[in-house]
Amino acid sequence: MPDVNGSLSVLSPVRGTALSLETVPDPVFSQGMVGPGVAVHPEPGQEGGQEGTQDAVAPMDGILAKLHPHAFVVLADDGRRGVLVHLGIDTVKLKGEGFTLLAREGDRVTAGTPVVRWSPGTVAAGGLPAVVPVVALEAAPADLGDIAEGGVDGGSVLFTWT
């Protein structure tokens, strides 16, 4: 939700460890080709973690502009800022296995609304990284601040976007 100075708080869609996007084992994300952001690594033993399922939640208020089993984009209410949440790397190869849609493309969501239930363990068992890139689309790195590091809960502030 935008605050008085127009910055937007982007929440973590999952519980885990927030690390630099540069740690993502995919150059499209690690080199910032899609945009700047933060990677969240699901942790074993946390709300499902690697072993069970967990809900990936909307990182902000807005419209679900795109929704796939492995990824979604929320367009903010201002209509000019979009955030991509990608559940794992190369997870399109799983053809939806281990993912359950909890919303529909075009739905209005509020920050914290469950969007996809997924299994990091299924992703890992498929030989794929379960890391979750959260990317500010069409943003510059300097547009992001208050970037979280270390343990984050789903729904806690991951970064702000000015």
What are the defining features of this structure?
162 residues, mainly beta, Glucose Permease (Domain IIA), 2 helices, 38% strand, PTS_EIIA_component, PTS_EIIA_1_perm, transferase, sugar transport, PTS system, glucose-specific IIA component/PTS system, N-acetylglucosamine-specific IIA component
Q: What does the model show?
A:
The protein contains two helices and 14 strands; from the N terminus they run ββαββββββββαββββ. The strands form three sheets. Strands 9-5-6-7-11-3-2-13 form an eight-stranded antiparallel beta sheet, with no helix packed on it. The chain has a three-stranded antiparallel beta sheet with strand order 1-14-12, with no helix packed on it. A three-stranded antiparallel beta sheet has the order 4-10-8, with no helix packed on it. Helices cover 6% and strands 38% of the residues. The chain has 162 residues and is mostly beta strands. The chain has a single domain (8-142), classed as Glucose Permease (Domain IIA). Residues 45-50 have low confidence and may be disordered. The protein starts with 7 loop residues before the first strand and ends with a strand.
* Radius of gyration based on Cα positions: 14 Å
Write down the overall geometry. Answer: globular
Strand and helix order: EEHEEEEEEEEHEEEE
Proportion in helices: under 10%
